[in-house]
Specification:
Layout lengths: L1 H7 L10 H7 L5 H6 L7 H7 L4 E14 L2 E14 L2 E9 L2 H14 L2 E2 L21 E5 L2 E7 L6 E2 L2 H10 L4 E6 L5 H21 L1
Parallel strand pairs: 7-8
Antiparallel strand pairs: 1-2, 2-3, 3-4, 5-6, 6-8
Length: 207
């Protein structure tokens, strides 16, 4: 029974190290207010408490080799996305072992979580529901550029598998996409998609 209680309340022993963490632990602030006021989240436990339904998905795990004075050193690099309905985050980390690399990447992804602006920007649909992106949005990472285009209901995710992986976790059901550059680099493709979703808020703010 004690093990089940720990599983249900993984943050019960959390001691906040920031003022924001204290407010979250006391139930005095919501996730919407955090994003509305552009507050910086520095503790992963904040996201664990406010987004308990967050799901995790590993994008890639690659071995990275580096020459040092003592010889060649090999490490693993993991790229992970976390998401819930209307929220998405991406993180990457390195470690000597796969497990720690994934856990570090998950923690970084949680600290990078942003809300996803959804809507129905397709002229062919106009249903008013939040199944797609509200307008065309662009994102870039490295040599990879991507454009997400609103699509009517029923189209599905007409994009690369790695892009689908991000959009599904973000709660987007229908979209068209155009990609440019070296799209074989999964990390850059995923981060470009993440940046496109973030840029939607900048465009909306400028309106």
């Amino acid at each position: 029974m004690s093990r089940q209680r720990n599983q249900r309340n993984p943050e019960e022993s959390w001691i906040p190290s920031t003022r924001l963490g204290e407010l979250v632990q006391q139930g005095l602030i919501t996730l919407d207010k955090i994003f509305a006021n552009n507050l910086v989240v520095k503790e992963k436990e904040i996201i664990n408490v406010l987004l308990p339904q967050l799901q995790e998905s590993v994008v890639t795990i690659n071995m990275v080799q580096q020459m040092t004075a003592s010889g060649q050193r090999s490490r693993f690099k993991a790229v992970v996305i976390v998401g819930a309905d209307g929220f998405i985050g991406v993180g990457s980390a390195k470690s000597r072992e796969v497990g720690p690399a994934i856990r570090k990447a998950i923690d970084k992804a949680k600290l990078a979580v942003v809300p996803v602006l959804r809507g129905c920007g397709s002229k062919e649909c106009g249903c008013g529901h939040t199944h797609s992106v509200p307008f065309k949005v662009d994102g870039k990472c490295g040599s990879v550029k991507i454009r997400l285009i609103p699509a009517p209901q029923g189209v599905g995710l007409a994009c690369a598998d790695k892009v689908k992986q991000v959009l599904k976790l973000a709660g987007i059901e229908d979209v068209w996409s155009k990609t440019y550059g070296d799209t074989r680099t999964s990390e850059n493709l995923v981060k470009a998609t993440f940046n496109a979703l973030k840029n939607a808020h900048k465009f909306n703010f400028n309106l």
